[in-house]
Predict the structure.
Amino acid sequence: MELLVKVAVIVIVLVIIFSGLFILFTRSTQKQLTAVQAEQLVINDLKSANPAADITVINVSNSTLQKGSYNIVLTIVYNSTRPCPTLFIEGFDYPATGLVPSVDNLYTKGNSSSCIINGLASTPFSTYVISAPQVAIARSYNQSIPQVKGYVSLYGYNNTNVNARFYQNLSQASTGLSQSYYNVWLVQYKAINANYSYYEVLGSTGTIVASYTGK
């Protein structure tokens, strides 16, 4: 009986040892994910959870949490062409922390009557530097001149397409304004049924410095 017990103990020990060796061998021979593969896995997961959103990768770098992992930062945007788009920025350390975001920031949200930019409540306008077109659009709509508000109201919030682009040099020739502007955002409001657009020129901190109509 004692012999059988000893044999059983030896068998169990051997099973544990060989199981550990098998796991170590499997891990050592398992192919490491490339940055492109990790990025695609994160994108696929986000698209399945946010099918109506526009998802864009803005940065991929080696993760500081674990060797072989990548820090992947993306924007998730809803209603991207409306006067107040919703913007999330999420960061993942994949596969170190799986598909759980290590960074999750909501920058803008709202609708035709209420447009919120998170961060402005605690940061003076003069120091809030706009770094994303969605923030420029929301900032513009928040403080739009009456003509723009009337334009959106006339043609409909959901029928007005808005886009923003950053210019290091917005020339006088391209706008028809009396001067050129530097390091500014140009926000265009174009209603589907309108034959003209409204434009607003925003400084880097979001102050409207000029406005005009055009095609």
In short: Confidence is low (pLDDT under 50) at residues 21-30.
